[in-house]
Automatic annotation (TrEMBL):
The lineage of its organism: Bacteria, Pseudomonadati, Bacteroidota, Sphingobacteriia, Sphingobacteriales. The keyword DNA damage applies. The keyword DNA damage applies. Residues 1-128 form the Nudix hydrolase domain. Its cofactor is Mg(2+). This is 8-oxo-dGTP diphosphatase. It is an enzyme of class 3 (hydrolase).
């Protein structure tokens, strides 16, 4: 099983969402940026490292949401989501097809990686219910 972190990065009431490139696994699906946890690395350190590598920005890692275990046809992941805050601007998108800031209300209209769907729903219900 792959252990993967992902960041719901919030800034000015918008969330950063990323589209996987055509050559990655799950091509062109939308996801929250992040990646695989390396041996001995904390989830928070993994997330800060991956976000710096993929997007060239620094984040403050905040509240964890519920981890999602998902079985894709060829691999299984456990995805650990964290709500994060942007600490530096200047996005440099190095791996994804695109990264965009989107209103929470529009998140459900994207074609998400399947493992991310429960995370989007939990994030939205927290926004509505506090
Ligand atoms: N970063 C990230 N990965 C996700 C999310 N949802 C999801 O199913 N994944 C899956 O988790 C796996 C690990 O993420 P990764 O970004 O380190 O892997 P990768 O595809 O770039 O590298 P790889 O092709 O060498 O496996 C990917 O296969 C990806 O499909 C998500 O929200 N964020």
């Amino acid at each position: 099983m792959l252990h993967v972190t992902c960041a719901i990065i919030v800034n000015n009431n918008k969330v950063l969402i990323c589209q996987r490139s055509a050559t990655m696994k799950l091509p062109l699906k939308w996801e929250f940026p992040g990646g695989k946890i390396e041996p001995g690395e904390s989830k928070e350190d993994c997330l800060r490292r991956e976000i710096r590598e993929e997007l060239g920005i620094d984040i403050a890692v905040g509240e964890p949401l519920t981890p999602v275990e998902h079985h894709y046809p060829t691999f299984t992941i456990c995805l650990y989501p964290f709500v994060c805050v942007l600490e530096s601007m200047e996005l440099q998108v190095t791996e994804h097809a695109q990264a965009i800031w989107e209103e929470a209300a529009a998140l459900l209209s994207y074609d998400w990686a399947e493992a991310d769907v429960p995370i989007v729903n939990e994030y939205l219900s927290k926004l509505i219910n506090g």
